[in-house]
Write a sequence for this structure.
């Protein structure tokens, strides 16, 4: 049940385009995590994690255990490296389609 | 004609968000008097009991609807001004001075309270669930000690906008340039569980330079996290010509109706070494004023914009659809929260092109200004407080 209800059916298609379209699966080279990645440009990266993927990532576990740290973490460096490798191998198309 | 795009205004939810909401600084409620707080489409009464605890109930007496906020604190209870019924912080009627007994059904709406970082938080959930202590905003080390200045606190009324407007700003990279005259160089969002975070590095805009913080020499590093639907902690490091200031900014709001909310913000400055208390307080007050200007710039936009359920985005925009997907979790029953609302999501905005265009725009403005100044047509010193903004 949606809380903010669109009044135009096209809005649902917009939601799908912006949140789910063109996500490419990337597996971490160091752990069992697999995420969905989209790159609208060289410097843009969108990463969709699942709870499964997050559970597999030792980096997040380590950061969460650090007593002094804040409870939100910017990202996993190993996953970033894995995505960069996938880009180099041409596995992730770079570029947006009309803004999404 | 069929290519024309239309705004989908959508329909806002009838309910108010589930989660912790901040009502203000705890000390402002601790004078033994009842306080009225407009919230969730009604009015709440807040008072301190003899143990020092803060209590929050619905503002209207369940007897004949008397306004408890105009009552009196008697012992631990709030006494209604109409017929003196005494209500306890647990929501039960404790005594009716003229009655043989208190009806068993004399229970009113109570809001569980927690004082965190010197601020009063209450739990709101239309399903009346027990307060979730695991998702309280974190305690901030040093707050309430000599290490930091006391919180400043300001309240702004936003009478004509749904509070999702303020949430949307978490992902809005470009508005920092156009509305707040800042220059974002790094911008990233992370949503996970109950939190939504904005990482932003920015400088001032030299073409809008106000004294002190408006210029390029002002570098802000900001991490701003929403803990739940309404309470943001913003860690800011400000660097100005080698002088570093650490600031904690709280930005929170309470919805007052489906189309209005009260925005509150408060700030504490880590006292810099070698700076006396009075100077630190002064920095805190000045920063509050500057952020106040920043918030007012946002308020002006919200009060005039149209609600839009289907924003059209360009490549330089942040993940507003994913942010709203995250925000939905607070407006559905707990049982209806889906994994995609809470799964971790990261989005790094590419600021390179925007920065290139903005640099050109700023250079052009500076050249224009110089030409005007040379012609003696300068409008003189720019009066007023320069704005500063992060997080929102
Ligand atoms: S209405 Fe409150 S005591 Fe009668
Ligand atoms: Fe803003």
């Amino acid at each position: 049940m949606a809380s903010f209800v669109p009044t135009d059916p096209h809005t649902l298609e917009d939601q799908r385009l912006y949140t789910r379209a063109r996500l490419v699966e990337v597996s971490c080279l160091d752990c069992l995590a697999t995420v969905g990645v989209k790159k609208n440009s060289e410097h843009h990266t969108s990463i969709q994690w699942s709870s499964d993927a997050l559970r597999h990532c030792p980096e997040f576990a380590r950061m969460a255990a650090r007593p002094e740290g804040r409870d939100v973490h910017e990202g996993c460096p190993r996953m970033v490296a894995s995505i960069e490798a996938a880009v180099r191998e041409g596995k992730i198309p770079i570029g947006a389609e009309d803004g999404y | 004609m069929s290519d024309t795009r239309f705004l989908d205004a959508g329909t806002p939810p009838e309910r108010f968000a589930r989660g912790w909401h901040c009502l203000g600084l705890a000390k402002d409620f601790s004078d033994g008097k009842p306080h009225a707080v407009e919230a969730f489409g009604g009015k709440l009464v807040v008072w301190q009991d003899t143990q020092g605890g803060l209590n929050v109930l619905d503002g209207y007496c369940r007897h004949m609807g008397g306004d408890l906020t105009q009552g009196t604190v008697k012992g631990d209870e709030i006494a209604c001004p109409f017929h003196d019924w005494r209500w306890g912080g647990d929501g039960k009627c404790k005594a009716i001075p003229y009655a043989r007994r208190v009806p068993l059904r004399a229970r009113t709406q109570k809001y569980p309270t927690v004082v965190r970082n010197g601020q009063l938080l209450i739990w709101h959930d239309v399903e009346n669930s027990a307060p979730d202590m695991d998702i309280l905003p974190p305690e901030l080390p040093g707050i309430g000690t000599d290490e930091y200045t006391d919180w400043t606190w300001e309240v702004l009324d936003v009478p004509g906008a749904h509070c999702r407007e303020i949430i949307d700003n978490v992902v809005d990279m470009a508005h920092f340039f156009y509305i707040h005259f800042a220059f974002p160089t790094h911008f990233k969002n992370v949503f996970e569980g109950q939190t939504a975070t904005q990482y932003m590095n920015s400088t001032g805009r030299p073409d809008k330079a106000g004294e002190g913080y408006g210029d390029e020499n002002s570098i802000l590093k900001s991490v701003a996290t929403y803990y739940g639907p309404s309470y943001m902690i913003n860690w800011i490091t400000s660097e100005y010509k080698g002088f570093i200031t650490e600031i904690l900014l709280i930005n929170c709001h309470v919805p007052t109706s489906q189309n209005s909310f009260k925005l509150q913000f408060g700030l504490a400055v880590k006292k810099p070494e070698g700076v006396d208390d009075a100077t630190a307080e002064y920095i805190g007050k000045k920063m509050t004023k500057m952020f106040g200007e920043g918030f007012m710039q946002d308020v002006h936009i919200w009060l005039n914009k149209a609600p839009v359920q289907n924003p059209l985005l360009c490549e330089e925009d942040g993940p507003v659809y994913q942010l709203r997907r995250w925000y939905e979790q607070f407006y559905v029953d707990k049982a209806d929260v889906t994994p995609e609302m809470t799964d971790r999501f990261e989005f790094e905005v590419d600021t390179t092109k925007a920065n290139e265009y903005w640099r050109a725009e700023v250079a052009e403005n500076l050249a224009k200004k110089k030409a005007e100044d040379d012609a003696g047509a300068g409008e003189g010193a720019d009066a007023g407080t320069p704005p500063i903004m992060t997080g929102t």
